[in-house]
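Hi! If you just cloned this repository, the fastest way to understand the data is to look at a raw example. We've pasted two of them here, unedited. The first protein comes first, obviously.
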Amino acid sequence: MSDWLRDWPAPAKINLFLHVVGRRADGYHLLQTVFRFLDFGDTIRCEPRSDGRIVTATPLPGVPPETDLTVRAATALREATGATAGVTLHVDKRLPMGGGLGGGSSDAATTLIALNRLWQTGLDPAELQRIGLALGADVPIFVHGHTAFAEGVGERFTDIELTPAWYLILVPDVAVPTPEIFRSAQLRRDTPAIAAADWRPGFGHNDLETVACKLYPEVKRHLDWLRRYGDARMSGSGACCFVEFDQESAARAALAALPADMRGFVAAGRDRHPLSMI
């Protein structure tokens, strides 16, 4: 099958912990986190165009096409390589906007990976990561393609291997704008940094969680419900929350017990992005 006809996966990520350890002079926050992929996400199909335009066939509500991250990713790749081809991008969107699961960043990274192959632009992963970082701090991890302890603004990685696990992810019916959380005067920005080698599963917390719960009570309500099953945490800047299970059956039993006014899904953790070998 031609790569132009295939669906390119754009998986979700969760942050197993997320500490804000400082702030750069330019205002960017210095983070430490562990990213893990899930076997759940969006898919992207790329359709060639002969007119040289880059367009989205699936515009997002309230998002101007020129600011859509897939369009921006394709445009950035073309500008970096001198490519002239056009493309229509079809996104099957399953991940929520403002959910902290990396949906837009994952879509952008998959667009870079797919078009780098389809347009035969020949960039290596490090070059794609540099392009991705200009699009958003979470884009590089999806290009990197492996579960990792991340530092800096989220772009320096130390690969780690984790034991198999299943996650119940809850999706509150709110979209949390990341800039709003990072602007908050209540955000702690001085959590002590650790060495990557010292991280262990279960360590830490999410520094953004307190701010998100205060601004968006629905996030707190979902976390409170999840905590009956264990150490529930918010992913990224929210709003999605998760708790880990050793067995799929236990995760699905918890999902079945979800109140009627909450929604969620179960997904397995994955240490490698499905496109990591491309």
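Ok, and the second one:
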Amino acid sequence: MSLDPTVAHRLDTLLAEDDRTRDRRYPGFPADGQPVHTVYVPADRFAPDTAARWGAEALAALDEHGPLVGVVEGVDEHTETLVRAKLGAEPIEDLRIDFEDGYGSPDDYTEDTAARAAATALSLTTESLPRCIGIRMKSLEGPTRHRGVRTLDLFLSTLLESARLPEGFRVTLPKVTSVVQVEAMVELCTALEQAYGLPELRFEIQVETPQAILGADGTALVAPMIHAAAGRCVGVHYGTYDYSASVEIAGAYQSMEHPAADYAKAVMQVAAASTGVPVSDGSTNVLPVGPADEVHAAWQLHARLVRRSLERGFYQGWDMHPAQLPTRFAATFAFFRAGLPAAAARLRAYREQTSVGVLDEPATAKALTRFLTRALRCGATTEEEVTALTGQLTS
């Protein structure tokens, strides 16, 4: 070797700050997993038994209009058994008590009352508490700013009178249009922590406006928004209908699979990559209600959209009605179960340095591991099945 060895040391010095910045901004994938969906419930309809009631209503819809076998592509009897077990044990993985579009804009007295009542209901929820829960406040835009702050403050003060903040608590900040709004949300969270002696409050950024995707200077603003959250951001969620309307998509064509939606979500996906912040797809407003043929058509649409999101790397979406839960879990389980054998075989071959006809690199091996881990966490498979397929348990 002819190169002066001090060159490498000079490069260490030159790149030291860059290394630290990259490690801080891009810590990798979230270690605590990601829910497969977020359920939105209007604040004035939230009760201590909301999760259990949604599970019961989902099972009732399945009893009345099922089975899913033969209706939803890729679902077999075993998958449907898993779905029924999931609906009985954990029908909602992530729940948001909604004070925004799903709730409306009543007078201050009405919303104050709803904020206190919802917080009291949450304090009384001792069973079936979802792994993640929180509220969606109104936006920090001028017309709704003070109302949003007041609702969040009232909700927390009422809840903390008789209970702790639940594990996995987060606030959804809707209609974010600027990095400064995210910075203001950080300041609001800091003030609430100081006022109530709280641990660090976490929040989600809801992308519902084109300004979050492309700023006035041509910058993809969702990327600096994530970093402006100073480690508090636990999700970036796509808002299907507000975003579609804001880019002039006619109502009949507003959908999670519109090209405008795909573009926005692709920007979100790249902006959030390796930051530890999960990205969530949006919702469909076609609900599985009415006669059997209409329910089946809505189930088929919902299942197809869920599967489409999963294939594109979006592992979470919104559900707006109990009867959407069967197809949320059916499509999710079918996706993971269809991919289990190949993913496990490739991971085992990579570990044992044998050939299965695919030459995988370390990054793909990590992706295969995450695939199996997601399948385990949502209930699509079991530890015993993964161990049998891979030869070892995926942690």
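That's it. A detail worth noticing about the second one: The chain has 14 helices and eight strands.
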